[in-house]
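Re: [ENG-882] Designed sequences occasionally contain unexpected residues at chain ends

Forwarding the minimal case from QA. Structure tokens:
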């Protein structure tokens, strides 16, 4: 697993895609953010922050099952991360499980 900074230093396209996905997410364009995070993760599947932000965007779209999958992947990459555990619990709660 590479750190986000190492990855961005090696690949400016990855950095730009992440920034574009974040901008879409922050402006409430969640379908676009989801598409961009998914594209990014095909290139860089170890990027934890992209998995988490994908989960956040999916929750906003009420796609809770997919959000749970994203948070579980983030946790697998960063076991014990309490923020990710909280996000996962909230997604389960919203889904009704």
């Amino acid at each position: 697993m590479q750190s986000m900074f190492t990855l961005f230093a090696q690949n400016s396209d990855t950095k730009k895609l992440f920034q574009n996905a974040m901008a879409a997410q922050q402006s409430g364009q969640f379908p676009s953010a989801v598409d961009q995070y998914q594209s990014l993760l095909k290139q860089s599947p170890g990027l934890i922050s992209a998995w988490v932000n994908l989960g956040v965007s999916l929750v906003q779209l009420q796609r809770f099952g997919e959000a749970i999958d994203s948070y579980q992947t983030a946790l697998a990459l960063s076991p014990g991360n309490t923020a990710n555990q909280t996000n996962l619990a909230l997604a389960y709660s919203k889904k009704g499980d």
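QA comment: On inspection the terminal residues look reasonable. DSSP finds six helices and no strands in the chain. Proposing we downgrade this to a documentation issue.
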